[in-house]
Backbone:
């Protein structure tokens, strides 16, 4: 069995307990289950793996959020209570309570912040650093506060006292900034596996 | 007398009590005082107005912040106690206490957020809206929370109970989101005028 999480930048592959990230998809001999937020990359996957199964058609998830991304649904499925942060191209933040999704928000990812500052002025170069507590007194710190620090502020506000679960490429870096937090690299794949088990029960 | 604030996107002109924003600079008959954060635009100003005076060389300002932009210095000069937010291409936030600058941070401006989301995915279209209190349950609200809402969260945190002064192109829009706030369209020019008075006293 191979699980594929198609993001906006990469294919994230889960096979034999290992996660890899690839730009171009290949054919798999094993049965393929996938989710996708990118139509073009999904087409390429289906050309190489015509029998791949889209788990979007089988997942059960309680939310009032219209158009919640399937990757966010999967990341949330294994968390009953807590905040789920997936830090990739975008940083998505979702709040779970009693296995219900209460809502969430979307911030730019760290690389997108970097590019955003770069388009404003060439002197605004974001180099991600651990955030200091004191008010910034240099451009380096000011850019970190105004981007990563602003997102951190809002995550802390919505988290109240809940535990925060991080996943995604920048998840580990962000996780270290929070006290009651845990980094889980296969969070999305855990949700996909739960969905497959639910399918098989029927 | 004409005051020119050269930003990264526009020339902001103060003349006879009126503010205008232009892309290309012209020659003025009056005496020109200016500040600049953009070298190319400054060169063009000096070609058309060779006797223009750069107020950066005359301003007095107490801060430990290294490399604080001259536009931020001028916006802060007329505020003794409070938070100063200049919302243009970037959103700069500075904290003043007893006429001392304590530090500040830099976030992307609203247009830069818009472009940043656009580069992640074409479905992430930020349309700035007044922020609702409830957790977002749609992509529109989620993008507003995760960008403008995150910056708002950090402004509120650093402001504690201080009054917040807004200026810049998106200043009015942001100002309406805060309780103890005021929008002052000529805040940077007020600082420039104080500096000219200080120069003349010598």
Residues:
């Amino acid at each position: 069995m191979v699980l594929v999480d198609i993001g906006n930048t990469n294919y994230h592959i889960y096979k034999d307990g290992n996660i890899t990230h690839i730009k171009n998809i290949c054919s798999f001999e094993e049965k393929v289950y996938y989710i996708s937020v990118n139509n073009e990359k999904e087409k390429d996957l289906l050309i190489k793996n015509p029998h791949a199964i889209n788990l979007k058609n089988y997942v059960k998830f309680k939310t009032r959020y219209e158009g919640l991304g399937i990757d966010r649904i999967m990341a949330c499925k294994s968390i009953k209570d807590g905040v789920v942060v997936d830090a990739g191209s975008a940083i998505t933040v979702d709040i779970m309570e009693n296995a219900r999704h209460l809502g969430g928000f979307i911030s730019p990812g760290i690389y997108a912040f970097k590019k955003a500052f770069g388009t404003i002025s060439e002197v605004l170069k974001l180099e991600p650093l651990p955030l200091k507590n004191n008010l910034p007194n240099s451009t380096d710190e000011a850019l970190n506060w105004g981007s990563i620090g602003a997102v951190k502020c809002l995550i802390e506000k919505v988290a109240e006292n809940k535990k925060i679960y991080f996943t995604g490429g920048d998840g580990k870096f962000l996780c270290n900034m929070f006290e009651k937090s845990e980094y889980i690299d296969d969070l999305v794949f855990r949700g996909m596996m739960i969905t497959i088990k639910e399918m098989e029960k029927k």
Observations:
- Chain A touches chain B through 49 residues (CB under 8 Å).
- The helical segments of chain A are 39-48, 70-77, 110-120, 139-159, 171-175, 187-201.
- Residues 139-159 of chain A form the longest helix (21 residues).
